[in-house]
Specification:
The protein is of the alpha+beta class and about 180 residues long. It contains 4 helices and 9 strands; from the N terminus they run ααββββαββββαβ. The strands form 2 sheets. The protein has a 7-stranded antiparallel β-sheet with strand order 2-3-4-8-7-6-5, sandwiched between helices. Strands 1-9 form a two-stranded antiparallel sheet.
Amino acid sequence: MVGVAGMRGRQTVRGMFQSLGVIMVAAGVMYLFIPHDESAEPIKAKDYRVELLTAQRVAPYPVLAPEGLGEGWKATVVSYKREKSDAWQLGFISPDTQYVAVNQSTAEPGKFVPEVTRKAKNTGKTQTVAGRVWQRWEGPKYDALVRTENGATTVVAGTASFERLAEMAGSLQAKKA
């Protein structure tokens, strides 16, 4: 009887190694055929001209969009929601692959700014960009430059550095459609 039990034990171990081999081959095949290189799929830039023209026509404030940004900026998010206090959002990926968004709204700044900055707080500091004074906000997710004028609050926020945020803020222009 001892010989039969020893034989079964060896068969079990051999079966385990065979199963492991099959699993390793399957994992290798999946690794080869499933995309795992994030740089293989470049981010596609969105054309936001139609949404911008629409927002400029209907918004009760001068809607801002960048002009003359350098190479490498790609628009990825665009929306205008009249029913949400005329909220305009235009998001970009910067040349150094950080997120930067322009948000505008007629909503109460005390609620709007923390919402779009993901709970950033006013530092009490200011920064002058292209002759305009902006408040500096810092947060766990996004930092921001904030300015209220013409009945709307403008927030330039994102994961980018204050230098990149200022680059975006300095490029903002308003054109009435």
